[in-house]
Amino acid sequence: MVGRGELTDAAWERIAPLLPGVDGRGRPWRDHRQVINGVLWRLRTGAPWRDLPERYGPWQTVYERFARWEADGTWARLLEEVQVRDDSVGVVEWTVSVDSTINRAHQHAAGARKKGRRRGTNWKIRNARRIVRRSAGPAAG
């Protein structure tokens, strides 16, 4: 029985040949399907790794496999294979959605000070010249 959010038999058959074999230390790996289902559970729930249910095996094993496969590009290869294959048969629907609630302006776009002189910092000099001219003008005339 496949739980909610876990790999179906069809999905497993597609990705199983793309997964790496034993790590070279001679120890057999925990079942890849069990570990991937643990990773999917963690990504779906957003829970800490330590809260991973026991049915997926030790959380350390699931995390280490996730991190190792991220570092060696296994996850990227899986995603690319699935996208390319599904896109070639017209199964993938590419949709782009931009929502202004997730677009945030950088602090400099919000009027924060920029490096260098502030705009208008010489206003005292300009005003001082005007004052001097006004006061000198009538007295001279």
Automatic annotation (TrEMBL):
This is Insertion element IS402-like domain-containing protein. Signal peptide: none annotated. NCBIfam families: transpos_IS5_3. Residues 7-78 form the Insertion element IS402-like domain. It holds the Pfam family DUF4096. It comes from the Bacteria.
